[in-house]
Every structure is written in C-alpha cells, then in structure tokens.
Write a structure and sequence with these properties.
Helix content is 34%, strand content 14%. By secondary structure, it is of the alpha/beta class. The strands form two sheets. Strands 5-9-8-6-7 form a five-stranded parallel β-sheet.
C-alpha cells in the first residue's frame, strides 16, 4: 500500500508521529521521564482511590451542619479541631480567630484535601448564605464529616477575630528579602520554582507546608510568596496556626516582583 510514503515530508514531520516515551527500555528511566515536570499529586487522591474502589458514602437526605455557639469556637481550636474559615484573604488578614485555616470558597476544592484529616470532623466559619455551597464543594472531594459551623458575622460581632497578618506589595519587600532579613517561603509548584525564583527563597509547596511548618517557624519574620498572592494567603494562615507570630503575605508575588525588574534566580 501507499503507507506513510504517500504523505509529503513537507506536510508532516515524521518525527512528530513518534511517541518519545516508547524509546525507553528500562522501567526506572521510563518512570523518571514520565513524571518529570508533572505537578504534585494532591494528598486527597489517596482518599479518592478508596472512594472510587468502594463507592462513595451514602449521605441520604442532605442536612446542613449544625450552627454552633460562637463562644465555643476558641475552645474547639484549642482542642485541635480542624476549622476552615472561608472568608476572603484580605478580610481574614485584617482579623480572624487564631488557629483557623483560611481557604476561601473558590479554593476549597483545590486545597482543602491537602490539609484535612479524613478521619476527623471538620468545622467551618462561614456565612449562612454560603453554607450550602461550601458543604457541596467539600462533599465533592469526600469531606463528609462536617460537624458544625460558626456564623462568620456572629464570630466577628463577638470580637473573636483578634489575630492579623500583614499584606505587603512585592516591591516594598525587596530590601529585607535581598538582605536576608526575613525568611522567604515560596509556596508555588516545583515547575514554577524551576522556571524562576526570588533570591534567598526557600521552596515548600503549599500542600506540604503544614507538615513542614516547624522548619520555618523560628521567631524570624516570615514572608510567604506565590505567583500572585492567592496561595500564599492560605500559607499565611497555615503558619500562624503553627505558631508563627510575624507573617507577611507578599501581594502580587512572583508576578509583580518580576514586573518590577527585581532579581530573579534560575
């Protein structure tokens, strides 16, 4: 038959028809090449494997979590309860309950699974109008044990939002970062880190920050940075919950630092 010889070489480059992954004859080199550049697999994938194999838990008629008295929130946190505050990062920075983790609603599906313990209950600080949406998102990633919620407006009204952190534009942090006067934590993915990073930065991808917080919480001011300031806002709450006293979220992150013409390492 005509085969590939009928296709003019000027039209198709035959090398583009070849799958380079077929060129490996050893499993180790194949796996290394396949995984090179891949993003980190979220921790909740392990939970999803169980769900996919055994089937999801039957929840029956969906009931919203019980509303809890706000004055009990501090004791929940002190006892080690996992409490998610879904407020916007700028509002959370201006005041929140110490020990709570800030994951705004648009990031719940992407990041909650990195931090939650599926064997323990979850509590929420959120608005009544957002509660149903929040619960549905969490159910979608297998977080079914939502033991109760605290109304965000009532928490604020009770004066419990006593902890804050600073939000500072990238350019204003250049001097202390370049002089090494702060601990700079880059929470982006490794692929982003490999493409370029700020001088004196330490890389801890956001999903691993909770378990590695002890490496950086040492009394020195900590600046957290991502591409734009979104993921680093979550990081700021993670470090504060781990005991950091002086946390700064870099607004604009790597994007604004680079646009300002500040030094980049590769």
């Amino acid at each position: 038959g005509k085969g590939l010889g009928a296709v003019p070489s000027s039209t198709v480059g035959y090398e583009k028809l070849f799958n380079p992954m077929l060129g490996y004859d050893k499993q180790e080199s194949f796996v290394e090449a396949l995984l090179d550049g891949q993003p980190e697999a979220p921790k909740y994938y392990a939970q999803m494997k169980i769900v996919n194999r055994a089937g999801p838990k039957v929840l029956g008629e969906q009931k919203l979590p019980e509303k809890l008295a706000v004055d009990s929130l501090p004791s929940f946190v002190e006892d080690g309860a996992f409490v998610i505050d879904t407020n916007k990062p700028s509002n959370f920075a201006n005041g929140h309950v110490a020990g709570t983790l800030n994951i705004e609603i648009s990031n719940l599906a992407s990041w909650t699974g990195w931090f939650v313990n599926y064997d323990k209950p979850v509590y929420l600080v959120t608005g009544r109008n957002e509660l149903l949406r929040v619960v549905r998102i969490l159910h979608e990633i297998g977080v079914d044990d939502i033991a109760g919620y605290f109304d965000a407006d009532e928490v604020a009204g009770a004066g419990l939002n006593t902890q804050t952190y600073r939000e500072v534009p990238a350019a204003e942090l250049a001097d202390p970062i370049l002089k090494g006067e702060v601990t700079l934590i880059d929470v982006r993915a490794k692929t982003e880190w490999d493409e370029g990073r700020l001088p004196n930065a330490q890389h801890i991808m956001l999903g691993y920050l909770k378990e590695r917080a002890g490496e950086v919480v040492n009394g020195k001011p900590i600046v957290v940075q991502c591409r734009s300031g979104n993921r680093s806002a979550i990081a700021a709450s993670v470090l504060q919950a781990a005991g950091a006293k002086n946390v700064i979220n870099m607004i604009g992150g790597y994007r604004d630092w680079n646009m300002a013409g500040l030094p980049i390492e590769k």
